[in-house]
Structures are given as C-alpha cells and as structure tokens.
Give the backbone structure.
Amino acid sequence: MKLTKLGHACWRLEKDGRTLVIDPGSLSGEGLLDAADAVLVTHEHFDHVDANLLKNASPDLEIFTCQAVADQLGQIPAKVQVVNHGDAFDTAGFHVQAVGEWHAFNLPDVPPVQNVGFFVDDEVFYPGDALTPPGRDVPTLLVPTNAPWLKGAEMILYLR
C-alpha cells in the first residue's frame, strides 16, 4: 500500500491500481480526487470535506461517511453511504472498519459533531478530528497534530 499526504487533513491510499482518498477538505489543495475510486469522510468541517468538490465528482465514486456529512451532500451523483461505529465494508479493493462517533471536544458553547474514523486494511488508522482508541494495535496512525481543540498532552497520551 502506498500512503500519500495530500495536504492538511487529506490522505491518498493506493493499492493494486485502486485509489482511496480520505478527507478531501477545502484546505488540502488541488487534484484531490484524481483517479479516486472511493472517498472516506470523517466529519462535516470544511477542512475535512469540500462539498462542492464531491458534488462535481464522478457518479461512479463511492463515498462513505457519517449521517451529518451525507445530509450535507444531499443529492449528488456519487454513491453516498452512511457508516457508523463498528461497520465494516470493502471499497476500491480496501477493507475498512468505521471507528468512533464524535469529534473531539472543542469549546463548551460548540456542540459536538459526528466524526467517524477509518481503519483501513488493518494497517492504517485515521481517526479524523478525534482521539478515539480503535481497540487494537495500529501499525500506522495518522494522528491530528495541530487543531484548535487539540492539547499536546492529550495527543501524546493517545499516541502511547
């Protein structure tokens, strides 16, 4: 599997000629969906999902996400599928398990949003903007390192 950071929160995973993109947000640059067979979106914040980008995507593109993002995308040509904590599915030649339900705590007056992380091929875990433990060993962890909600000590404890 080839893993490429595309910018901010976006990652591209490639295997056997197939491409899976995670969190193509509006801060991640251009060409995020080039050759993408499927997309995983953790949550609704603009830095993790660019709704306009996905609305113009190929109708063959599969998108897996939480209910809040699916609602935001509305009726788009791509195939949007809602996943919840514990769901497992196969897409673009990858096996994926959904982990978690909520974005990390932000501020007392900011209500939490849904956030589902993704464990891909039992090799790569991307929690989105959450510090949800996946409940098993993680060979490659794509952990948030800079966010308004993130505290350094919490991130270090999560990594441990």
About this structure: Residues 126 and 142 are 5 Å apart (CA to CA). The radius of gyration is 15 Å. The longest strand covers residues 2-7. The chain has one domain: 2-159.
